[in-house]
């Protein structure tokens, strides 16, 4: 039984390593400097991978088919722990009225996933678009975005961007 336990532990250690001399994901994401975060969007194929948000790039609007409409983002970070609060502020300025802001700021700690490339990821990060306006009004409209990530140790980083809301 003892040999079985040792074999299982050894197999687990090998499975968690990066292989081929690469560091494992946990050591790749060790905190070793100033925290940073990059604002992105989910990829358009699987909607599960990070793509940087290009200035004026497309920001996905999604729907559950009923009434819920959401704006989807992604984040990539360094030098933060894997437990963090994610704050999002999406601002839409209609031509005829005050700015409208959708916020995601009262969430519990969320888990960021470490990859062997040394970055922490969270895809998707979703905020309701209800406060921006109805679907037809905000589709193909520009928005400004501010993302703040604060980990459970109090380290924080921000990223901002500008993009166009698009239905996919």
**Contiguous runs where pLDDT drops below 50 for at least 5 residues:** 1-23
* CATH class type: Mainly Beta
How much beta, percentage-wise? over 45%
Which structural category fits the helices and strands? mainly beta
Under CATH, the homologous superfamily reads Immunoglobulins
**Total beta strand runs:** 11
Average pLDDT, all residues: 85
- Domain tally: 1
Instruction: Indicate the CATH topology.
Output: Immunoglobulin-like
Order of helices and strands: HHEEEEEEEEEHEE
Largest sheet entry: 11 strands, mixed
**What's the gyration radius in Å?**
19 Å
What's this, in brief?
The protein is mainly beta and 168 residues long. The chain has helices at residues 2-16, 25-28, 135-138, and strands at residues 36-42, 50-52, 57-63, 69-78, 83-92, 100-104, 110-111, 113-114, 120-128, 142-151, 156-167. The protein has a single domain (31-167), classed as Sandwich (Immunoglobulin-like).
